[in-house]
Amino acid sequence: MENKQYVYLFTEGNAKMKNLLGGKGANLAEMTGLGIPIPQGFTVTTEACNKYYNDGRVLAQEVKEEIRKAMANIEEVTGKTFGGQTNPLLVSVRSGARASMPGMMDTILNLGLNDETVEVLARETGNERFAYDSYRRFIQMFADVVMEIEKKNFEHIMDHMKEAKGVHLDTELDANDLKELVRKFKEFYSRAKGQEFPQDPEEQLIESVTAVFRSWDNPRANVYRRLNDIPYSWGTAVNVQAMVFGNKGETSGTGVAFSRNPSTGEDKIFAEYLMNAQGEDVVAGIRTPFPIEELNKQMPEVYQQFVSIVDTLEKHYRDMQDMEFTIEEGKLYFLQTRNGKRTAQAALKIAVDLVEEGLNTKEEALLKVDPKQLDTLLHPAFDEAAMQNAQVIAQGLPASPGAATGKIAFTAAEAKERVEKGEKVILVRLETSPEDIEGMIAAEGILTVRGGMTSHAAVVARGMGTCCVAGCGSIVVNEANRTVKAGDKLYTDQDYISLDGSTGNVYGAQIATVDPEISGDFGTFMSWADEVRVLKVRTNSDTPHDTEQAVRFGAEGIGLTRTEHMFFGEDRIPAMREMIVSRTVEARKKALDKILPMQKADFKGIYEALEGRPATIRFLDPPLHEFLPTHESDIVALAKDMEMEVQELKDIITSLHEFNPMMGHRGCRLAVTYPEIAEMQTRAIIEAALEVRKEKGLNIVPELMIPLVGEVKEMKYIKDIVVRTADSIIKQSGEDMKYSVGTMIEIPRAAITADEIAREAEFFSFGTNDLTQMTFGFSRDDAGNFLKDYYEKKIYEFDPFQKVDQTGVGRLVEIAVELGRKTRPDIKLGVCGEHGGDPSSVEFFHKTGLDYVSCSPFRVPLARLAAAQAQIKFPREKK
Ligand code: ADP
Ligand code: MG
Ligand code: MG
Q1: What is the pTM of this model?
Q2: Residue 641 has pLDDT above 90, yes or no
Q3: Catalytic one of 456, 625, 835, 846
Q4: What is the spatial distance between Cα 365 and Cα 355, in angstroms, rounded to a whole number?
Q5: Ligand 2 centre and the CA of 584: distance in Å?
Q6: If you compute the radius of gyration of the chain from its CA atoms, what whole number of angstroms results?
Q7: Per 3-state DSSP, what percentage of the chain is helix, strand, and coil (rounded to 5)?
Q8: Where are the beta strands (DSSP E) in 13-127?
């Protein structure tokens, strides 16, 4: 058996090896190759992580052996000795998966320190404060990441000490304080764990590497992965890297940098740093960092070198970079680079700029924007008029753009709970941490008291497209009393506040919002997407208003109009109820006659909003009892209207009860029982089209869609009614109008007999919501309850109602496409389920060869971009 290599030196890897080395490791190797100053180290591969899990959560002997060898190599390169009595080598242990997962996995710095090496370090650097500062940090990180002793325990010990000394900043503690702190930390550690803090550097290292692998499976990581479509099977890599120190005094420091502004996209380096600091100090929001321009005053040469490396990296990766750097006694090191996360606005500006600068082709630029991100640009902004009267009560940093309004929630758990109950909340925190992730997802917006533009709250909010104002130091949050004080006004959890993530303004009231539009960079970018894609994008819409919105967002027609949605209105439901409870055909026809003009008016409005674009209209679909009255007063009123006994009506209602309505009398089954419903709907669709053609000169070709077909004879029975009705109306009008009749494929039997069904159906529209439900055999209304156990046990990694299950449901789609085309080569194929607005599903439908996807109006731009990306990755012939 050939031996696998589980450990790679930075000198052995490159950026193409992301799958094996993770993003961080691959880029550290690439930067090493570019000659950028990188502290040297090695990467333990993602395969070693998978092996760790396959072996039952143990780190294999051979992996440990390779780690030891690589350590020896780093000792040689640095001239230092791991655990040495002179010149001790200290390292960091850093996680790094294929996709970046900010804040999800934890890093350990200064590993290799123990009671002896700390003394050596102090002596050799002549800097006792630095040595003990490094040691206390190491103990805290090791305890947190490896031994799961919460960080805050150590923070409390430190806070006590600062309080006792009457100082505010960590940097104000001196060497003796830190020595004392180390003693207290170790004491706490051994009390918490019942064992001493490990002194053997090798043990520290192996324990830490193992902990990083273990953290791949922690609950936070699992939530993040599901949210971001990252498969569990990828695993994480671990990077072990020689330390450089930003906490060695006033000529040392550490910082984070973006090659362009991640919030606006402006082509100007955006960076923050702190002197005499280490690791996460900048992002933790403990001290407020300086803008990088300050560095030009403090250390002009370092600044020049910094700017030049940033420039090199951006040109090399042909994208905006997010970097970490450290200055150790005036010498600059880079510690990380990756394609930077950015707001949707910034993403579009950067994409358009990169093409204009000649750094990217349009195709490359199109791949740089995450379709899901576009969503944030389509959501309401504050209404200008409402803003006139709005009072700014505080101002923080504009950390993630957008407008949000809601009631104050004080903890992540509370935010989540209140949102589940239907409230809109703004999460207000001193600062956020990775544990807050679920509350941050639930909240409309996030407001923090501490932290800069690169704080946890800011980074995560930008990633999610949630509005965030960070570092709003002028408000006072009292978590115990559950109040927020701004100026001299007190706000409680029942008060509304509003955030403007683009200005950092906080308002003390609820503010109305307005609809967005696509223009500027957004418009340019979307026009490129349209040039590229072959998959068409339609919308699901039941009203002229939504249709207009969707057309503004680029919809090329309607893929699904649900006619039943038109009947829930107060003025309409009585006629609908009358129709349902009618016991003779005559009575039913009388009720349908009342419905016809309303339905026709709706269709005319929709046709007009479409301005000639195609529209697929679906016949009545849901179980009828959904429309029936349940309140006594409504029942009495309906009985009176219909001149019938109340008890008689109640008996009818009872007789319509079904045990399993989703699999009951619905869809085309209704039209089989009551052909007059199909007749009326055909009439409404055809007459509306004829009238709009005449009045507006629009060339409309109605598409009539029969739902829930499972058997070709069902389809034929209803199609015959449609054709008979439509042809006679058209003939009478003297016009020459075409129309088509098709079906939804949403029952597995329809998919596997699609060749037969295609004899009657001129188009198929995959109703992937029902198809998923019927294929899995669980209902989308109930699955939520148990799917969470399936996620936890990794039986399913994602919700099949959001992202199409390609193996099962997708297979049925493929079969139906193949069989349908065999019978009718030019059959038109589309999707009208929720999946039409999910990027990975859109990619699948593109590959399957469908003509279009259809999704809700607000997802249309997302689907247009996803379709373009699919074409770039998997080119298909243009028709
Ligand atoms: P994350 O993925 O959360 O950013 P990192 O592994 O990048 O975690 O590290 C956390 C912090 O520690 C970063 O600020 C990074 O620059 C710093 N750091 C990591 N390794 C070293 C090292 N070898 N020397 C100095 N600082 C380091
Ligand atoms: Mg981290
Ligand atoms: Mg990092």
Answers
A1: 0.82
A2: no
A3: 456
A4: 7
A5: 70
A6: 32
A7: 50, 15, 35
A8: 41-44, 81-82, 88-89, 91-97, 108-111
